Predict the 3D structure of the following.
Amino acid sequence: MTRSAVWRFRRTVSPLTGAICCVSLVLGLAPATAGATATGVGLAGVGATATGAGLAGVGATARDAGLARFGASGFVQTSDQKQREVEAILDELDRLEEQMDQLAEDYAEALNDGIELDKEIAATEARIKAKEIELAAMQAQLQNVALKTFVGKSVSNSLASILSSTGSLSDAVRKSYLTSVALNTGVSGLDELQGIIDDIARERKQLESQRTRAGGIADYAKKRLAAAEASANVYSARQATALRELGDLLRSEQSRRAKAALEEAARKAAEFTKTKYSNIPAPSSAAGTAVKAALSQLGVPYKFGALSPGSAFDCSGLMVYAWAKAGVGIPRSSRSQYYALTKIPTGAAQPGDLIFTRNPVSHVGMYLGNGQMIAAPRTGDVVKVYAVSWSKVTGVGRPK
């Protein structure tokens, strides 16, 4: 009877052990692990685990082994999978940042074009004003001549009209009359007078064209700003989602990358010092002042198209401000700065030089030395010091 009971007991245990082994194989565990678990806890333990939580005991073994596991939300990633996801998200954010920079640069370039065109408009208006003053002087001179010619006679309204008008009478009639007056009194330069009238008309036509262009630039700038802000919103939303789901891991990876970037940038900068360069302009004596001015704005928020000390900057605006403090004027956008400044070899960069990145150029910072630069990076960030990504450098410009 005892032998029969033992036999029945073995028949009961064998299928249960086999089931555990099958599940273990599906989850990637060796049968020996499941067997050891069953042996270690005894049949009562296995029964309690199976009854109390189904296969939760096997799941616990999987958790302990660092493998995939099940939870209330379903499948949960391994640490390696999470790390790969974090790296993919940061790469995606880098791409979004580059797109945002391009749009921001388009906006800054439009602002720069508007500034330059405003200068042209002001110059045109000044020329028109000068020509009008010159014309008035010549008209006054001819009027005096006419008065002397007709001594004792009153100047008729028609004569006054001829002398003062630049458009109410035909050029032929006015020129004919004024010529006769000039010939009779020894006054010359009627062609010069007509030339001034023609110059004013030409300048006014140019001014109208310039103002039309200015309106178009303003509209374009408005559209580029809207596109840049939309891109910034996409970036911010993606970053917020990533931080919510993978906060600590994401911040840890960002910190790791930043540290690695600083080390690599410093190493590369040290290599540059081994190369001697000739026939390049020496750094400006005002470079130190520009560097101090830029550093004084650490922590100031980034804003598209901004150049407001202590309040907000975009990347090129910070460079304009810093070098203006040093008494040197440079263009408004990073792209225009790149084309305007004297180029030097990347390895010859010195503090105060401007580091341009991406192609086409869409970002600029000021080199500080030892592979570091100061810049206003992007929306949501502030003016800060960080590593130069030498592999992304398009060129180095030296203000003078």
